Amino acid sequence: MVLSLPMGWVLKIHRSGWLAALILWTLLHAAADAAESKRVMVLHSFGRDFKPWNEYARTIRTELERQSPWPLDITDHSLVSARTSDENPEAAFVEYLRALHANKPLDLIVSIGAPAATFVQRHRANLFVNTPMVFTAVDERRVKLSVLTPNDAVVAVRIEYRKAIENILQVLPGTRNVMVVVGASPVERFWQEEIGREVQPLANRVAFSWTNDLPFEELLKVAAALPANTAIFWELMIVDAAGVVHEGNNALARLHAVANAPIFSYDESFFGGEIVGGPMLSVQEGSQKTAAVAVRILGGERPGDIKMPPVRFAAPRYDWRELQRWNISESRLPSGSQILFRRPTIWEQYRWQVAGIVAALLLQALLITWLVYEHRRRSLAEVQSRNAMAELANMNRLETAGQLSASIAHEINQPITGIVLKASAALRWLAAEKPDVNKVRDVLTDIMGAGQRAGDIIIGIRTMFKKGEGAQMPINLNNLINTVLALLRLDLQKDDVRVAARLDEQLPSVTGDPVQLQQVILNLIVNAMDAMRPVEPRVLKVQTSRSVSGTVRVSIEDSGTGISEPDRVRIFDPLFTTKGSGMGMGLSICRSIIENHGGKIWVEPTVGRGAIFQFELPSAGSASERQNLAA
Prior knowledge:
Shape: rod-shaped
Helix content: 40-55%
């Protein structure tokens, strides 16, 4: 390259010295060289779309562009004549290539595949004698080492057919037949003979069949009806017996769609959809080494000095999808095998979602467990509370019995005294000379009535103060109030309490336990009497009424000291009392009884002084209607 210096640079040389000018000129020369593209020709064996060589060509081009420090001008040419054994068209093809690159010499030729390598070596003397060349993607058995020139470098592979067949027998130990898929082109006939020679030691273990004499359509029919314990070994299918050319992956895909046996191969370019796998030649490894050698040659290194060992089988690789399809256990695979295309598990695909769901389920399970435990604990506590409340209610009734002992004795004493007096009178009349039978009969009738009354009083007292729960039955609250007032009559008189009762004669009945409701009324009246002891006058107002909503209301109003607002809020709480000697359970028991009967109880201040306790219970009719609706 000649570089002319302008006059301005000459003046600068004289001014700054010849050394600085020389350095600058050298830098400019190097920059100009770097800017020039390296011209590379890629020679394909059959065409750009024939496997496995198209995969090598594509990867080599990618690696060249990645590794090269220079711009690259890459052209592709295909040796179409390699599809047949006719060599006549080759001379014209050589002349075409020479004419095409006569004015712009090539910096490098990369031949891909055995047919391209054979073609180049056959015409090396007439085809770019001094142009560096790299033979790649070719088995070392297909390169004539004796005719290599100093301008030739080889990146060969070594196909170990016996190792590939032994892999089939390892992963499928029951294999008895292997169908080798191979076409009818010259290169395919060469490999048919080479495979047969290399696997001859395995002939006692497995029988081999060949497809070179079959049109591809006939081959598909055979593959669909293979006997059991058969495997398919894919070598090449470039040209079938009918002369049909097969490009790309179409032939292998069609075979995979109909074959009833697994398919194996030795080259990674076929792997990724139809091939089970095994030890294979790595396209990436061979392409990287080829690109590295090419860059070294483009950089000025002599091709004949570059010696590369052949690329051998890489670590075994298997397609998980094909392993599943043919039920091949992973335990049979060679150690160090890599399994690709494994379908990700739900955990691998949705790890965080699954973790969230599992966490939510665990939290829910814990919550449910806690709720069940809490429910059982509360149910047990409720049963214990009810038992304790029943025990306290019984104690409350016994305490009330002690307080009302004088009234009880007075109530019982009256009929007994009447019985004694009438019996004495009857005896006197019978002792007369002529007894008056009618009078005696009347007296005896009165005695019977008095005895019945005493018995009723005793039964009522026993019922009221017995332990346990009574049966649910219709109850007239007016009768309960009258019974309690009669029982407390002596205490009311003693405390000078005036009773003003306004009981609704049309009051509906309620359903419940008469003993418990009688205890509520008794407690409220006794509390009212206690509240009125410090004051005068003492007036007790007892009233029953019915509401439009179907409830029955009982009001017990006293004229006592009243209840303060803070105490009124807590008056029904357990253990809270305003009495100096009270247990604080009476009103709590009353609330529990009323609420268990489906009612409510509350206290309000009166207009003047005192307090009014009220409770409401559903009438018998409305209660039955609610039970029917609930059912």
